[in-house]
Amino acid sequence: MSSIPPPRVTPPPSVPPEPPDLPDLPPQREREVPWPIWTAPASVLVGLVVGVFGSVVVAGIGAAAGGSKNSPAVNLVSDLVFDVGFVVTALYFASLRRRPRPEDFGYRRIALSLGVGACLAGGIGYYVVTAVYQSLVHLHGNDKLPQSLGVGSSTAALAAAAVVVCVVAPIAEEFFFRGFIFGALRRWHVVIGGQDIGTWLAAVITGMLFGLAHTGSAAAQYLIPLGFLGFVLCLVRWRTRSLYPCMALHSINNSLALGVNQLHWNAGEIVALVAASITVVGAITFPLAGRTPARTSTA
Question: What is the pLDDT of residues 247-256, one digit of tens each?
Answer without folding.
Answer: 999 999 999 9
